[in-house]
Amino acid sequence: MRYSRCHMSKKLLFLIPVLALFGQGCINVTVPDPTPEAATPMAPSPVAPTETASCPDLPQVYYFNKLVFSSREISSIQSNVIEPLLAYYAALPGQSIVSIMIKRTDTGISVESIVDQSTSEDPVYQGFIHPRTGTTYPRWEPEVVPPGYEG
């Protein structure tokens, strides 16, 4: 399941530098029609007036040092970790994952994601360690808070 929804908001402007650290990012720019001031010629804009740059498909998935993962591991991560994680957030109203960063650890993978919330201007940063069994990864399931937990 892939999402191509792109929000033009302050949140994405904040996420641009974060995503740019990994070599790509979503840049949405709307350039208003120029209103030239008297006696000051304006240089032509690289983006046509009122044109919006397109956003890549979201979420963007990044593998830190991707060469250490076999194709079987990447396939297992996609089907058993990424897709269930995306389905979980898709079921929550007003939340969608913008990016996912996956790093290998000694016992599995570290999964870090940025979640866009429609109810807040601040994104959510969440992460977890997911275990590995040989070259496969078990299906990810959200943690359930036990009844009576008063954290």
Provide a descriptive summary of the structure in words:
The protein has 151 residues and is of the alpha+beta class. The protein is built from two helices and four strands. It has a four-stranded mixed β-sheet with strand order 1-2-3-4, covered by helices on one side. Strand 2 and strand 3 form a beta hairpin. The radius of gyration is 20 Å and the shape is globular.
Largest sheet: 4 strands, mixed
Mean pLDDT level: 74
Estimated helix fraction: 10-25%
Give me the side-by-side strand order of the main sheet: 1-2-3-4
Any low-confidence stretches, pLDDT <50, length ≥5? Answer: 1-34, 49-53
User: What characteristic shape results from the CA principal axes?
Assistant: globular
Task: Supply the number of structural domains.
Answer: 1
Order of helices and strands: HEHEEE
| SS elements, strand count | 4
Structural class: alpha+beta
β content, as a range?
Answer: 15-25%
Q: End-to-end span in angstroms?
A: 34 Å
Quick structural gist:
This protein is an alpha+beta fold. The chain contains two helices and four strands. The chain has one domain.
What keyword list fits this structure?
disordered N terminus; about 150 residues; alpha+beta; 4-stranded mixed beta sheet; about 20% strand; 2 helices; 4 strands
Break the fold down into its secondary structure elements and pairings.
Layout: H1 10-20, E1 60-63, H2 71-91, E2 95-104, E3 108-117, E4 124-131
Parallel strand pairs: 1-2
Antiparallel strand pairs: 2-3, 3-4
